[in-house]
Amino acid sequence: MNVIFDFGGVVFRWRPAVLLAQCLPAHTATPEALARLVDGFFQNYGGDWGEFDRGTIEAPALAQRIAHRLKLQVHEVAAVIDAIPAELQAIETSVELMRRVKAAGHRLFYLSNMPVPYAAHLETHHAFFEWFDGGVFSSRVQLIKPDPAIFHHALRVFGSTPDEAVFLDDHRVNVETARGLGIRTVHFADAAQAQGELEALGVL
């Protein structure tokens, strides 16, 4: 099988509320203020942040846009953008799950919405990239999940048909898109749950 992992929230830690609370404490004094800031900053990974994921704007332009829209200082927004590589720590249980998938004889791939600078950071800081037979970062192909086009592109790059693939992602909309294309899916909550579902699919 061709087993395709999402990255943020699956292989790498992603805690947007924690990140914003740490970087912008003056703007996150209450749970309500924090929730509003998370929504406004990342826009459910559409809007300005979606363009950053797509690779159609760079970090300085993103900072300007978010600052203007949310009435923040540009340096405040830039501090959040710059802090994200440190937030993207590998989740050890997920790394172990990938190792098991690879050891079981399957081909391992990734399909991740990831801006250019973060993609480059991850590639240079994690030896397990050697385990992958290939991967697609959204910013390098200017397509993003859940657009079906990025799934079609990834399958072509991976040399896989939908029925040969299993896709793991923590966002339901991405899972639903993949399932609609005939790809078997795991809606990721944690590595133990994902392993159980992979066992049920006969992958492990």
UniProtKB/TrEMBL annotation:
<dbReference type="InterPro" id="IPR036412">
    <property type="entry name" value="HAD-like_sf"/>
</dbReference>
<dbReference type="Pfam" id="PF00702">
    <property type="entry name" value="Hydrolase"/>
</dbReference>
<dbReference type="InterPro" id="IPR006439">
    <property type="entry name" value="HAD-SF_hydro_IA"/>
</dbReference>
<protein>
    <submittedName>
        <fullName>HAD family phosphatase</fullName>
    </submittedName>
</protein>
<dbReference type="InterPro" id="IPR023214">
    <property type="entry name" value="HAD_sf"/>
</dbReference>
